[in-house]
Write a structure and sequence with these properties.
single chain; 582 residues; mainly beta; Pectate Lyase C-like; 3 domains; 13-stranded parallel β-sheet; 13-stranded mixed β-sheet; 7% helix; globular
């Protein structure tokens, strides 16, 4: 009864947090027996503070939805959400264009505040320009959470079939206090636009825990300088813990970045994973006169992207510039799989930027760095460089001059005076495990005066600085400190952060015990039903790690959604939320 009661309480807390208002009406949309049979009818009659719960039904909801009003600060959010434990689908097949939007969008919001959209599968629009969800004009306190958006097809050169589009078009009023969290966008045709984009007068945002994959242009983009929309730019935000796979442009030779900043300012890009895209993460400025600045890119993992890992600068002499940005603690591995000669890091027209504490590990072509003549006053130091063919075969191209042998590069470029050429000793890079082992030269080798930002974490959601100096790369080896080595004495009984989270194939579940004891480690769905028992045995004190592959007791794949990991002994329990996104 204790476990069941805990889950009931937990679900009540989750529901209240998601609905945003305790005393508003609870409106049910259902095939039969609800308050309304269509989502739009419920929205039309809902007011601030109301929660619209949409039940799963035998067919999708074939409708395109418009929010022409929202909530407010006093009465709370207007919330549209899936009924707990159910999977409603909004489908645009054979539905006429959304009459409210200037493009064809499944869900459209314009000049509205205090809205939450949570837990839907959104699919099937075929249009030269349109979106699964589009926010336009201005608005405050908008949250898009836990949605799956796919099969948005038919994008064209003057538009694009996008997943989530945020267009701040009003120069005087911004879109602000925006949260885009834990969504899964896949199999869309955003070319010539982007799968998830924030453009124009957008500020104070969080784009976190999303998965974007299999799209035909840029994955996630933060834009400014496109004067057809607004003179303002995406700014003062955070892009963290996202995963982007296979964002590959379908035009002009393919130069799509998994994550791209184009004219944005003062944005933190941290703890993301990008793989199999044309470019990993690009910080650029496409439009003449535009300066991208104040970007902090830290603790990201970029591996096996087609043409380069980390890219920054305007791409040509007549475009914009990238200035005063920092790149720290990133791990770049075996990028430029197409052997274009651009290596792990590609510097274009950029000035006064700093790169330190990064790992750059080249593939078989041995090109680590490619820099053009637009590279001015950029500083590189305390990095770790490596290629398996050895430093005599390694190549650094600095302002169009090619160097082999690390010392020659250091002397010729004047860069990386305190950096290393050495094997970082990843645990298993072939399986994308970029943890470093206890003998790694990256250990305690970062910039001596480096001080992590408040809340900054490594790739495992763990403390960024352990020991005397920060480790180079995205992993901070926790065993480097006496505190961690004696952790079993300091921590009573707990679950440590699972990784990756969200996940789409396997997740590593970690815990720590202060003594030998019998424990039960299980996974539950959002209704409190047990899905899988992972451990039920006596365990020794200290850390443990268990892999869950997203299957139930019958070894059948579980649906995308929220799950809870519960670790318990005879006296207590710990609960952690994880996200499965396929």
């Amino acid at each position: 009864m204790k476990t069941k009661s805990t889950f009931i309480l937990l679900l009540i807390i989750v529901f209240v947090q998601m609905s945003g208002h305790v005393f508003g009406r609870r409106i049910i949309v259902a095939e039969s027996g609800g308050d309304y049979a269509t989502i739009q009818a419920a929205i039309n009659h809902a007011v601030a503070g109301d929660s619209i719960l949409v039940r799963e039904k035998s067919t999708p909801y074939y409708e395109k939805i418009n929010f022409d009003h929202g909530g407010n600060e006093n009465d709370g959010y207007l919330t549209l959400m899936a009924y707990p434990g159910e999977h409603p689908i909004i489908d645009g097949t054979n539905v006429p264009n959304n009459p409210a939007s200037y493009t064809d969008d499944l869900i459209y919001l314009e000049n509205v505040n205090y809205i939450r959209i949570i837990g839907f599968e959104i699919r099937n629009v075929n249009t030269p320009e349109g979106s699964g969800i589009r926010v336009y004009g201005y608005g405050s306190y908008i949250e898009l959470r836990n949605n799956e958006i796919h099969e948005i097809r038919g994008g064209a050169q003057d538009g694009g079939a996008m997943g989530i589009t945020i267009y701040g078009s009003n120069d005087n009023k911004s879109i602000n206090h925006l949260i885009i969290d834990n969504n899964h966008i896949h199999h869309c045709d955003p070319a010539w636009s982007e799968a998830l984009t924030l453009n124009g007068n957008v500020e104070n945002f969080e784009v976190t825990n999303n998965i974007v994959e299999d799209v035909n242009n840029i994955g996630i983009d933060f834009i400014g300088g496109e004067d057809w929309l607004s003179s303002k730019f995406a700014r003062n935000g955070r892009c963290a813990w996202n995963q982007v796979y296979r964002a590959n442009s379908s035009y002009e030779g393919g130069w799509a970045a998994g994550i791209y900043v184009d004219g944005g300012q003062n944005i933190t890009i941290e703890n993301n994973i990008v793989s199999e895209c044309d470019l990993g993460i690009e910080i650029g400025a496409e439009n003449a006169g535009v300066v991208t600045s104040g970007i902090i890119m830290r603790n990201n993992i970029l591996y096996k992207n087609d043409k380069a890992g980390l890219v920054f600068g305007g791409y040509a002499v007549n475009t914009g510039r990238v200035k005063n940005c920092t790149f720290t603690g990133n791990t770049c591995y075996h990028n430029d799989t197409m052997h274009e000669g651009l290596g792990e890091v590609w510097i274009q027209y950029a000035e006064n930027n700093e790169l330190y504490n990064n790992i750059f590990y080249a593939n078989s072509q041995n090109i680590l760095l490619y820099s053009e003549n637009g590279n001015v006053n950029n500083i590189l130091d305390y990095n770790l460089w490596f290629c398996e063919a050895g430093e005599n075969n390694a190549k650094w191209v600095w302002n169009n001059h090619t160097y082999t042998v690390f010392n020659n590069y250091q002397n010729g470029s004047g860069q990386d005076a305190h950096s290393l050429f050495s094997d970082p000793m990843f645990i298993d890079a072939s399986k994308a495990d970029f943890h470093i082992n206890s003998n790694s030269p990256a250990l305690d080798a970062g910039k001596p005066d480096f001080v992590p930002a408040d809340g900054e974490q490594d790739m495992d959601h763990e403390t960024r600085l352990i020991g005397t100096r920060v480790d180079i790369g995205a992993d901070e080896l926790q065993t480097t400190s006496a505190t961690e080595q004696s952790g079993a004495l300091l921590f009573d009984f707990q679950l440590l952060p699972a990784f990756p989270n969200p996940f789409n194939s396997t997740v590593q579940i970690q815990g720590q015990l202060n003594k030998n004891q019998f424990v039960d480690l299980s996974v539950f769905d959002i209704t409190g039903k047990k899905i899988r028992t992972l451990l039920k045995q006596t365990m020794p004190s200290g850390k443990f790690q268990i892999t869950w592959n997203g299957t139930n007791e019958q070894h059948q794949g579980c649906a995308s959604g929220v799950y809870f990991v519960v670790l318990k002994n005879v006296e207590q329990q710990a609960i952690q939320k994880i996200f499965l996104m396929k």
